[in-house]
Amino acid sequence: MTTRRTRPAPRPPEGTPPRTELARQARAVLADAVRIAHWAAGTPGPGTAPLAAHALERAATALELSPAQVRAGWDRARLAGLIELHGDTARPGWRLRAWDRDDSAVLRGWVALFDAWSLVHAAPADIEAGAVAEAVEAVPQVLSLLQLSAGPVTVPALLDLLGQRVAELQEERCEVPLGPGRTAPAPAETGARAGTAESAAGPARSADLNALLLDWALEGLAAVGALTLGKGHATLTPLGNWAVWVKLEQICVAAQSPAGNIEQSAADMLLGCARLTPGPARAEYRAWLAARTVGSAVAELLAVARGEDALLRGLAFEALRVVGAPAEPEVRAVLTEPSLRPYALLWLAEYEGNDPDDAQEVLSREEATWLWVDTAAAVADHGETGLLVRHLDSAVQGTVPALLDEVRAVGHPRTVQVLVALAAAHPDPALAKAVRRAAFQVHTGGA
Length: 447
What we know:
With about 450 residues, the protein is mostly helical. It has 22 helices and 5 strands. Strand 4 and strand 5 form a beta hairpin. Helix 15 packs across helix 18. The two termini are about 40 Å apart.
């Protein structure tokens, strides 16, 4: 174990309702989504997203909701992890099964919806995608101001902050916008004059664009229950205030960690967490994830998992468990990759509600053997010799000869190194000799 400075459990801001009340509010926000999820889970062939027209009509009739309410609730149910689509079949997500009894599941579901606010409330169609992306990236600073203000904040103040943050993002990308005194290059004098006039109008248009984007962002956040809008001002709801505080705390925890994991690459972050117990490790994963977009974080973790270090492969999927529902499509997509397939199958089994102790049943004999070798490689590279010997007990084969036969056949690239390390570590001379012989046969291609 590494030595870590402990930090007292942070307390939410004064006035934050207890978790039971926050969960009650989250259930109220997602009430229609829960009703639609129950309906979809019990109805054959509800159709893929967006909800098929015939299913939309059936749901509206059965639930006594308008088609627009059904469509909105369907999208929210998917984003909150209440339902999962498998082809044309909708299955209840684990959060739906735990909805009435588990406040933590409810709050995690609402936070998933909160994180997806830009999908819940579509951006105006006539705005360039790059400008929308910049606004989404700038919104956390807007939320931080709302949270620190602990009350209403005027729209002009929020607009000023949004504009500053967008300008910072453009500067970081070396995208200096044209303004007065900065003329665009033109092939002729008339073109240069046109560029100057156009650039002079640029800042006004930029301010109008930022105002439009801020209105869209505030409406989207209000749509998921994160804030309320008044005349010329916005205020975080208790749920929104709590969610922003949690995310800020995650960043602070990472910033105070000895390794400074928030600034690290995925590989370095995972190595920094390798010797932590599960609870602190998950806290580090959450903090690292909170400082990145979900898509980029998942892509970086899967890139690490594809590397040669088996320890990082396993840890990457542990971090992906913290991501949850947003990682599901990417994890499902790697099922075709032999080196990741066993990990992805276990991840999906647990995600779909199987007990972790029973999840191994989803693996074939060959996949379980491949995973045994991969885990042994991680232990050989990073663990103690005693762990490698004890790892023999986790093999699905009942005997060492059977294990060696199947390990030779499975074709893992680290098989020879694992067997050599196991032979060197095992105290039984006869067994060690058999393992060395198996390593030699794999190395030479013999039977």
